[in-house]
Amino acid sequence: MAALARLVIFGFIALTVVYVSLSLWSRAVRREKLEQRWAEKGRIGDREAFVRRGLERYDDSIRRKLLLGVYVVPTLVVAAIIYFTNFG
């Protein structure tokens, strides 16, 4: 039982590190694309406001929510491996 608790705790910590890293990377890529779009269109006005609005829309998008799969997929795989190893 202690081994399972250790697996769950360290697995959660590792998946959290992966999730935070992916989240920060994805947001940085989105910011870059918004800044490039601003430059390509030659817009006049506040660039930071344009980027901020774009990032707010990104925060509500499905792409952002798909990153939560970082927790779901490995958990299901480990659970399946444990199940089939013990009962399969």
Total helical segments? 4
Largest sheet data: none
Overall geometry: elongated
What are the segments in which pLDDT stays under 50 over at least 5 consecutive residues? Answer: none
**Strand coverage percent:** under 5%
Total beta-strand segments: 0
The string of secondary-structure elements, in order, is HHHH
* Count of separate structural domains: 1
Helix content: over 70%
Q: In angstroms, what is the radius of gyration? A: 20 Å
What gap, in angstroms, lies between the N and C termini? 20 Å
Mean pLDDT: 92
Secondary structure class reads: mainly alpha
Give a brief outline of the structure.
By secondary structure, this protein is an all-alpha fold. It contains four helices and no strands. It has helices spanning 2-41, 47-59, 62-66, 69-87.
